[in-house]
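User: Assemble these into one structure.

Assistant: Restating your components, then the assembled model:
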Amino acid sequence: MIKNFIDNLFPLRRSELTAIKRSKIISLWICYIGVLIYFGWKAYKLSQNERTLSYKEDDSSPIPAPRATFFSSYNFTIDCQTVYYDDSTGGCNKYVTNTYPYFGGYSLNFSAPALEFDNPTDNASALLGIQLAVYITDPTFPGGDAAVEAFFADKDTESDLASASKTPRIKGVSGYESTVALANSYYIANNQTYALFYSRRILSPLHQNAKNVLSGNGDHKPITMISSILISYPNLVVGSYAAVLMRPNSYIVVTETENSDLTVTDLISAVGGIYTAAMTIYMFLFGADVIGPWGLIQNLPCVRRKVRSTLHKSLSPNIPFSGPILSDDLSVDQKLKAIEKRHLALEFFLQDYVVSVENVVNDDTHKGDIEAPTEKDIETSED
Ligand SMILES: *[C@@H]1O[C@H](CO)[C@@H](O)[C@H](O)[C@H]1NC(C)=O
Ligand SMILES: *[C@@H]1O[C@H](CO)[C@@H](O)[C@H](O)[C@H]1NC(C)=O
Ligand SMILES: *[C@@H]1O[C@H](CO)[C@@H](O)[C@H](O)[C@H]1NC(C)=O
Ligand SMILES: *[C@@H]1O[C@H](CO)[C@@H](O)[C@H](O)[C@H]1NC(C)=O
């Protein structure tokens, strides 16, 4: 059994020189072990599940105004103003909620999905910024610092995170949540004006499961967020505690899509490619080996019998599969007939299972090139 397997693994010709036989075996071992090591390495890389981010830039749509949440330990209001590139201004207090009690203090929200920043190179009257001025209205406010905090997010962040966290096993949602929360949280000090410059980003983390692991193109749940910086100036809004002017610093939205570095398909094709390359070099050096015309299907227990009997039937009238005919008690003519039949049957067999011999059959210029194997050759193949 094992010997058969090894023989199939290293099919060798009886007529081969011993030195070449040895180097063939060594080369094959090197090929197989090399491919095995390569497979192991690739499988390890696959198990690491490494990912690459691909970038896509899009400047075709305007940038929506961010959402903002303010918090203070003293009651306050916010006065909203829009500023345009054509020097006009507008009111936007309808986008600001009333304060509501929050963790022993007060909080309010600003949310204006209708306000959008067009690229000023395309729109001369585009929105330049949205100014939110904070006024402390609390009668108990003694002056000084009112512990105002502000948190900015993209208008879609909240629903994106909610929908992403509904996807089971999506990795890194908590990471994105804290990134979204911490990256755009600021402490607003007294008597300052701030400029909040922000850009919109879309992250598309990969969610892989058994279904899509083959292709590597897992489900993507986009999470829209902003990255921002806050720059402070002396207070320009007289009478206010502080003011924040929100404006985009880029009209390009970058989408970062997570992709698998390596998929099962990649693994198979990479290992297959390396194996083919190794075998091509091997065949270049040592030539092709015997063709195996019987595969798994022909070797299935139920099929195998039929294959055998069909083959036996097709050859048996001419090849009797029994003792040598020459020693039989036949006339010379009968013997010649029998030999011819066997010869023909062998040709048919060769045509069916080894190589097309049509060209060889009619070509008698090479007659005598092929020598019959000797007893010695047969013996050496046994060890
Ligand atoms: C907080 O301030 C607002 C605006 O001045 C006022 O309408 C509201 O009643 C105040 N709330 C509390 C609980 O004092
Ligand atoms: C304000 O925003 C927060 C955080 O997004 C949310 O939990 C809260 O319900 C909002 N409140 C109002 C009055 O819109
Ligand atoms: C230019 O921007 C303003 C402010 O956002 C908007 O109202 C207006 O429709 C825009 N004009 C064009 C041509 O898009
Ligand atoms: C606020 O800042 C301005 C400019 O720096 C300064 O003139 C003013 O006195 C400050 N007001 C308070 C109440 O600190």
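The two ends are 16 Å apart (CA to CA).
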